[in-house]
Design brief:
14% strand; alpha/beta; 7 helices; 5 strands; five-stranded parallel sheet; 193 residues; Rossmann fold; 41% helix
Length: 193
Amino acid sequence: MVRIACIGDSNTFGFDPQSLTGGRYAAKIRWTDRLAAAGFAVRNLGVNGLGVSRESVHPVLVGELLSPPQPDLAAVMLGSNDLLTGLSAPETARSMKKLLSLILEKNAAATVWLIAPVPFRPGVWVPDSRLIEESKELAVRYRLLADGERIRFADAGEWGIPLAYDGVHFTEEGHRIFAEKLLGLLRGMPDGS
């Protein structure tokens, strides 16, 4: 069974934007649990509010990857919170490079897959177009970063993921589509990892 560790923020954690207390969608809705239901051993390392620019957290995340059983694949999708707190796409990509370099240096997973987050849409948390443009630019930066590091890359912005009223978080349907698209890519990998 292929072991996947998913490093991410609230969209990996499964945050339910209708929740007033930081709750999450039921397991049957979350994209990570849908991967598990499809036969993958999934470790969900998603944390509400996590940003890749919190570089003090990088060793903790890598430590999670190195703890047994070590994953065959580490899927990394971070950066949205960094943009929401005012960082630019280039600044966020620089922090992502540091995290990826540490993962690769420690050989913390057989395969590393960088996933560009779904770009923001107008919503309660996204009041201006600058944030939307930065979130689109992040995907461009991440693609270049993945090419440079010779790791796998996916742009979730190409998957038609519906976002909730806040312009940031996946809807229930968004989780379903995200899982479906990611499963298609996973099943298309030559060695299954």
